[in-house]
Every structure is written in structure tokens, then in C-alpha cells.
Amino acid sequence: MAGEGPAWSTDPGPVVRPYALTRGRTRPAHAMRMHSRLLTLPSPAARQVVTPEARRVVQLCRGHGCAVAEIAATLGRPVHVTKILLSDLIDSNVLMIQPAEDGADPTDPNFLGEILAGLRRLPDRAGT
To answer: Which helix H or strand E contains 97, and what residues bound it?
Structure first.
């Protein structure tokens, strides 16, 4: 059965390994938590991002910003890999970490509820 590919594969596209996305790096250059919100900066650099992941991050973080956990879930990438990609975009002046609002407590159930609500709004990736 020539041309069918391996029987265990349902995805004909190439797989990009996490170490390829991070160019072998294992640590982000900027400290951020899963609830840290990132905003797209109004700079020409935002229009020059080349990877599909970077373009998606720029879209997600426009306007109100987006939490690291939401970005990782949307990209379908591990949080640590996502943090490295986000650090690169911060270094390129595409993103900035949104300063915490006065009194924002990441252990507050309302704050965590907002993160959970954002994650629930994401499309279901179980079928992919």
C-alpha cells in the first residue's frame, strides 16, 4: 500500500518538536506566571512575526491581553515552551507583561475564575 503512510498516524502534516520551537533553549528570559497577562505592543515589530505560533499570540494578546495559561492552551503547547516563545516576543518588543492591577491576588477565587472562564471559552481541542 504505497503512499498511505504509517497506520498509526492520523495527521499527515509534519510535527514540530518543542525543542525546535525554542531552538534548544530550556529557560525563558523573562519571569512570568501562568496567570501573567501579556499585551501586544503597538509597534511595527508585531507585523513582522514569522512563525504561526507568534502570529497567533499577537492576535490573542491584542486589546485586553491574554494570560500565559490561555495562550499555552490555545497553541496546544506546554506552558514552559510557551513561556520561552513569549520571552522571545517580549525581547522583540512585540509583547509586554501587563502590570498587575492594584490588589490583584492570584489566589483569589474570582481571579482564578476569570482564568478558568477564559480557558473554557477556547475551542475544544479533544477532537484534534
So the answer is: strand 95-97
